[in-house]
């Protein structure tokens, strides 16, 4: 059997309808982790859908309860073929956001996969049931092509709380650090740069939300009688925000700006073009950090965003000076940002600008991670994807969004390769979520080639000349938040 055999088997899985059947069953399980009382369905997805499949493929599986009370369980699975073989860890999440059943287009349901042209509709198709189903099907194709062997060891981790912020994931990975240790993480989530552009990303930007409040008095007062005499909290807050980020999106707080873009990151992004695809908004060429390309602004720099701003009664405004204004803010950040001291940094800035009446409350945050683009695992993966598709994949040092990649990069300690099978227009988290058939088909082929290469000495898997694998504690070339 050959690499082409594995790719042909993965392609047949798509063309025969077997992949659709698998995805249909998985989408039908209403794993809405944000809904109260969802535990039984989350557990069923692991117990009744994934475990029997993996056990039939020779995986040792077990359910691990979440260390956070009330949060969904985890599935840990192993298939060990040899101590001298490379070990890959893969990850997926079985939970989805709320279905919003009534908001889907006519004839569509979040709990049934429906094909309309190239689009495969259903909740979780893009995030994340469809993506981890592609990877599992590709593993099975390699297993069959090699006559019941993979040629490498596999560890799988599935969670059921990613849409709630992954409660308990970091604690579990710390507890099972040695058990989950591997040479590399290969997983799939998030979008490609564009539907027709196979993509590898090496980490994700971090994210931290915070709230700004201006509470000046107990009640509202007539704007005619008191205008010019009473400080308006909406005006105060708008100017406070403007002191933090200017009208063109440039961050004005030095402590929240990242280090200069590393040369390796600039090289990786040199030919990356952002936007211009159907159903995407036009990029504002004059917005964001001056001197950076659009790709550098979203993948290699920080942004401060205003997620919501409220003062008075926007639905039914009255002629009164409101007593209170607040804004929900967000910092998206790359490696090297002092995000853990955000509250102190913002507090010092506001005080220095005279906005002592603005209160700052930090809500939650997640680390930034980024593998060095020059890491040997990156070049190995790029070669594999290029061999399968006939074109160089897009390489992103990190995703613009945020994933719980810090648990693999920081807590366990390994290089991380993400190969997404979605695209920017997939309506993730919205009604009419979908995947694209051609991307599913190509994703199956890409992952079958990648997994085949992992078990092939000639594919140049990183490590010594005499062995396939790197040391289990390998962290070389990985840069991450401390």
Give short descriptive properties of this protein.
482 residues, alpha+beta, Aminopeptidase, Alpha-Beta Plaits, 2 domains, six-stranded mixed sheet, four-stranded antiparallel sheet, 20% strand, globular, disordered C terminus
Describe the fold and architecture:
- The chain is α+β, with helices and mostly antiparallel strands and 482 residues long.
- It folds into 2 domains: 315 residues, Zn peptidases (Aminopeptidase, 3-Layer(aba) Sandwich); 139 residues, Alpha-Beta Plaits (2-Layer Sandwich).
- It is 31% helix and 20% strand.
- The protein has a 6-stranded mixed sheet with strand order 1-2-6-3-7-18, with helices on one face.
- The longest helix has 18 residues.
- The radius of gyration is 24 Å and the shape is globular.
- The two termini are 45 Å apart.
- The C terminus is likely disordered.
How are the SSEs placed, and which strands pair?
Elements: H1 3-15, H2 18-28, H3 39-56, E1 60-64, E2 74-79, E3 87-93, E4 114-116, E5 119-121, H4 129-145, E6 153-159, H5 169-175, H6 177-180, E7 184-187, E8 199-201, E9 203-204, E10 206-215, E11 221-222, H7 223-226, H8 233-244, H9 263-269, H10 294-299, E12 303-311, E13 320-321, E14 324-333, H11 342-352, E15 358-366, E16 369-371, H12 376-389, E17 394-396, H13 406-412, E18 416-418, E19 434-436, H14 437-454, E20 478-480
Parallel strand pairs: 3-6, 3-7, 7-18, 8-17
Antiparallel strand pairs: 1-2, 2-6, 4-5, 5-19, 9-16, 10-14, 10-15, 11-13, 12-14, 16-20
Helix pairs in contact: 1-4, 1-14, 2-4, 4-14, 5-13, 12-14
């Amino acid at each position: 059997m050959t690499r082409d055999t594995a790719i042909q088997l993965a392609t047949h899985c798509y063309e025969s309808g077997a992949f659709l059947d698998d995805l249909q069953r998985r989408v039908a399980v209403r794993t809405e982790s944000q809904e109260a009382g969802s535990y039984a369905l989350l557990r069923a997805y692991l117990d009744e859908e994934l475990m029997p499949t993996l056990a039939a493929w020779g995986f040792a599986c077990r359910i691990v309860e979440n260390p956070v009370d009330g949060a969904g369980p985890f599935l840990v699975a192993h298939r060990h073929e040899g101590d001298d073989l490379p070990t890959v860890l893969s990850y997926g999440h079985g939970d989805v956001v709320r279905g919003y059943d009534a908001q889907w287009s006519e004839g569509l349901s979040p709990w049934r996969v429906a094909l309309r042209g190239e689009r495969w509709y259903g909740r979780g198709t893009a995030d994340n049931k469809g993506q981890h189903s592609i990877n599992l099907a590709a593993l099975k194709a390699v297993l069959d092509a090699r006559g019941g062997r993979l040629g490498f060891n596999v560890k799988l981790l599935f969670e059921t709380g990613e849409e709630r912020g992954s409660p308990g994931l970091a604690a579990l990975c710390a507890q099972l650090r040695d058990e989950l240790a591997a040479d590399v993480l290969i997983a799939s989530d998030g979008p490609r740069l564009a539907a027709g552009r196979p993509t590898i990303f090496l980490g994700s930007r971090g994210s931290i939300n915070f709230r700004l409040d201006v509470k000046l008095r107990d009640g509202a007062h007539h704007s005619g009688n008191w205008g010019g005499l009473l400080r308006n909290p909406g005006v105060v807050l708008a100017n406070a925000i403007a002191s933090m980020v200017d009208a063109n999106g440039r961050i004005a707080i030095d402590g929240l700006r990242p280090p200069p873009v590393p040369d390796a990151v600039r090289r990786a992004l040199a030919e990356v073009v952002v936007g211009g695809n159907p159903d995407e908004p036009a990029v504002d060429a004059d917005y964001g950090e001056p001197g950076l390309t659009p790709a550098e602004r979203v993948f290699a720099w920080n942004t401060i965003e205003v997620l919501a701003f409220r003062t008075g009664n926007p639905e039914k405004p009255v002629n009164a000076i409101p007593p209170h204004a607040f804004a929900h803010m967000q910092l998206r950040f790359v490696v090297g940002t002092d995000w853990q001291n955000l509250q102190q940094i913002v507090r010092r800035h506001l005080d220095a600008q005279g906005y002592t009446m603005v209160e700052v409350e930090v809500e939650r945050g997640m680390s930034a991670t980024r593998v060095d683009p020059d890491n040997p695992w990156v070049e190995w993966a790029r070669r594999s994807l290029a061999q399968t598709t006939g074109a160089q994949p897009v390489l992103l040092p990190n995703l613009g969004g945020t994933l719980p990649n810090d648990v693999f990069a920081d807590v366990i300690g390994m290089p991380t390769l993400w190969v997404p099978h979605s695209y920017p227009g997939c309506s993730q988290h919205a009604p009419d979520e979908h995947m694209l058939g051609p991307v599913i088909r190509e994703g199956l082929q890409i992952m079958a080639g990648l997994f085949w290469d992992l078990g092939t000495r000639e594919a140049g898997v990183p490590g010594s000349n005499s062995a396939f694998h790197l040391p289990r504690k390998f962290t070389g070339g990985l840069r991450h938040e401390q």
